[in-house]
Design a protein that fits this description.
cytoskeletal anchor activity; Insc_C; flat; mainly alpha
Length: 522
C-alpha cells in the first residue's frame, strides 16, 4: 500500500491527544489499583533503596505538578459529587466517592514517597482525611443498599455534612503541603551558595506561581519576595537575575507580594538594575516586566507604592533607553508596557517622557517591523501617545515624527490570526488611536494633517460598518468623538447624511443609530 502523508495539523492533534492520554493514564490506573489494594504497600523493606532511586528520577517540580494535578481531580470530583447528590443519584454518588477515596490515598502516598520529612500536623490531617473518606464511602454504600425514600432523605443530610468535612480536610491538607513546599524552596534559595541548586529552586518556585493567585499568596507569605530580592542583590547570582525577576513579576500579581516588595525596598532594587548598564538586556527586560506588573492599571492595590514616585524619573529614563535600544520585539513590548502603565499611574510621567523625546523614539520604533511587530506592541505605543496627548506640547512632536500618519494606519488595525486576545488588542489599538486623534485635533495643524490623510472617511467607515471595528462599542464611541472634533475644523469634509447622523445629534443618539445599523445600510 502507498504510504499516506498526514497534514501537519492532524499530526499535531494526534501527538497532543496521545500525550494527554499518557499523562492521564497513570492517574487512572493508580485509581483502579487503589480500589483493589486499598493503599497497601507492595514493596518490602529491602526494596526501599530501589524505591528511593526511582523516586529521585523526578524533580521536586515534577512531583509538585503531579500533586497539583491529583488535587485538581479530587476537587473536581467533590464538586461533581455535590451535584449528583442534589439530584439523588445515589449509585453515581457512591461510585464517585470510591474514586475520590482512591485518589486521596494515591495523592498522600505519592507525596510521602518524595517527601520524607512531613510534619506531625500534616500526618494528622492525612489520617483525618483518609478516615473521613472511608466513612464517606461507607455512608454512600449504605445508601445504595436501601430504597426507602424516608431513610435516604434522613441520610442525605449526613452525607452532605460528611462531604463538606472531606472537602474542608482536603483543602487544609493541600494548604499545608503547599506551604511546606514553599518553605522548603525558600530555605533552599536562602541557604544555598550553589548557582545550580538556587536555579533549580527558583525554577520550581516559578512553576508554582503559574498555578494561580492562591499559590502566589502562599509564596509571598512565606517570604518569597524577600528571598528573591536577596538574590537580585548578590553579584554572584547575576546569571539568575532574569529568571528571578520573572518569578517576582508572577508573585507581585497579588497584594501580599506587593506589600512584601515595598517592605524590602524592591522599587529601589529594580531602579538600580535598570540603570546599571553592566546588566544584560534580558535582565533589563525582566526588570521592566516587574515594573509593568506592579503598575498595572487593573490592580486595585497600587496606592501604597509611595517609593515608586521617588524613583520614577530614573525608571522612566531607563525604560525609554530600553525601548530605543531593544534588539527584539519582546524586549520592546516589556519596556513599552511598563511605560504605558506608568503613564496611567502618575501624570508627571508624561512630562518626563516629553522631556526625554520619548514620542520621537516610539514613533521611530513603530517604523521598524522587527521591533513593533504585533498588535500588543502597538497597543502599548498608542496607550502612551493617548496619555501624552493631554499635554499641549505633544502636538508639535506628533507632527514632527509623522505621528498622524501612524495613528491613521492604526485605525486599520486588524487581526491576522483571529485569536481572541489579538482581536481584543486590535480593538484597543483602534480605540486609542481615535482617542489620540480626538485629543490632538484641538491643534489646527494636527487636524489639518489628519484631514489631508483622509481620516474623516476612515472614521465614518468605522462608525457605519460594525465588522470594521469588530462590533466594538468602545471603538465606535472613540471614532464618533474624533469625527466630531475633525468636523468642527473641516465641516465641508462630510456629506450631509454623515453630518446629520454622526455629528449633529447627541453622541448617544449617533451611537444608538450606529449600533443598530445593518451592513446593507453601508
Amino acid at each position: 500500500l502507498p504510504s499516506l502523508s498526514l497534514p501537519s495539523s492532524m499530526h499535531l492533534i494526534q501527538v497532543d491527544s496521545v500525550q494527554r492520554w499518557m499523562e492521564d493514564l497513570k492517574l487512572m490506573t493508580d485509581c483502579e489499583c487503589m480500589c483493589i489494594l486499598q493503599s497497601k504497600p507492595i514493596s518490602i523493606e529491602k526494596d526501599e533503596q530501589n524505591e528511593l532511586i526511582l523516586s529521585s528520577q523526578y524533580s521536586t517540580c515534577d512531583n509538585l505538578q503531579l500533586l497539583l494535578k491529583r488535587a485538581w481531580i479530587i476537587s473536581t470530583e467533590l464538586t461533581r459529587i455535590a451535584q449528583k447528590l442534589e439530584k439523588n443519584k445515589w449509585q453515581r454518588v457512591h461510585s464517585m466517592t470510591v474514586r475520590v477515596n482512591c485518589h486521596v490515598r494515591s495523592m498522600i502516598n505519592e507525596y510521602n514517597t518524595f517527601n520524607r520529612n512531613s510534619s506531625e500536623e500534616m500526618h494528622q490531617f492525612e489520617k483525618l482525611l483518609i478516615d473521613k473518606c472511608s466513612e464517606f464511602t461507607a455512608f454512600t454504600e449504605r445508601c445504595i443498599q436501601t430504597e426507602d425514600e424516608q431513610i435516604l432523605k434522613s441520610m442525605k443530610s449526613c452525607v452532605n455534612e460528611t462531604l463538606t468535612t472531606v472537602a474542608q480536610y482536603f483543602g487544609q491538607l493541600i494548604e499545608l503541603v503547599l506551604t511546606h513546599e514553599a518553605q522548603n524552596l525558600m530555605r533552599q534559595i536562602e541557604l544555598s551558595d550553589s548557582v545550580y541548586l538556587t536555579e533549580s529552586a527558583i525554577s520550581s518556585l516559578f512553576s508554582l506561581t503559574q498555578e494561580g493567585a492562591h499559590l502566589c499568596r502562599i509564596i509571598a507569605k512565606e517570604g518569597g519576595v524577600v528571598a528573591l530580592f536577596k538574590i537580585c542583590r548578590q553579584d554572584c547570582f547575576r546569571c539568575l537575575y532574569p529568571q528571578t525577576l520573572r518569578t517576582l513579576a508572577s508573585i507581585c500579581c497579588v497584594e501580599e507580594g506587593m506589600h512584601q516588595l515595598e517592605k524590602v525596598d524592591g522599587i529601589l532594587c529594580l531602579a538600580d538594575i535598570l540603570t546599571d548598564n553592566t546588566h544584560s538586556e534580558a535582565t533589563h527586560a525582566e526588570a521592566a516586566a516587574v515594573i509593568a506588573q506592579i503598575t498595572s492599571p487593573h490592580l486595585t492595590f497600587t496606592q501604597h507604592l509611595s517609593s515608586f514616585l521617588e524613583n520614577m524619573e530614573e525608571i522612566v529614563t531607563a525604560l525609554v533607553k530600553l525601548c530605543q535600544e531593544a534588539s527584539s520585539g519582546e524586549v520592546f513590548l516589556l519596556a513599552s508596557a511598563a511605560l504605558a502603565n506608568i503613564t496611567f499611574f502618575d501624570t508627571m510621567a508624561c512630562e518626563i517622557l516629553l522631556q526625554l523625546n520619548a514620542m520621537k523614539i516610539l514613533l521611530a520604533a513603530c517604523s521598524d517591523k522587527h521591533i513593533v511587530d504585533t498588535p500588543y506592541s502597538r497597543d502599548q505605543v498608542v496607550t502612551i501617545l493617548a496619555n501624552m496627548s493631554v499635554l499641549d506640547q505633544c502636538a508639535s512632536e506628533i507632527i514632527q515624527g509623522n505621528g498622524v500618519q501612524l495613528l491613521m494606519e492604526m485605525l486599520f488595525e486588524r487581526s491576522s490570526s483571529g485569536n481572541s486576545a489579538e482581536v481584543a488588542a486590535c480593538e484597543r489599538v483602534q480605540q486609542k488611536s481615535a482617542v489620540t486623534l480626538a485629543r490632538l485635533s484641538r491643534d489646527p495643524e494636527v487636524a489639518d494633517a489628519a484631514i489631508k490623510l483622509s481620516c474623516i472617511p476612515r472614521l465614518i467607515k468605522l462608525c457605519r460598518s460594525p465588522p470594521e471595528r469588530n462590533n466594538s462599542d468602545s471603538v465606535l464611541v472613540a471614532c464618533l468623538a474624533a469625527l466630531r472634533r475633525l468636523a468642527v475644523m473641516s465641516p465641508d469634509g462630510l456629506e450631509d447624511s454623515d453630518f446629520q447622523q454622526l455629528v449633529k445629534p447627541r453622541l448617544v443618539d449617533s451611537f444608538l443609530l450606529c449600533t443598530n445599523m445593518e451592513e446593507s445600510f453601508v
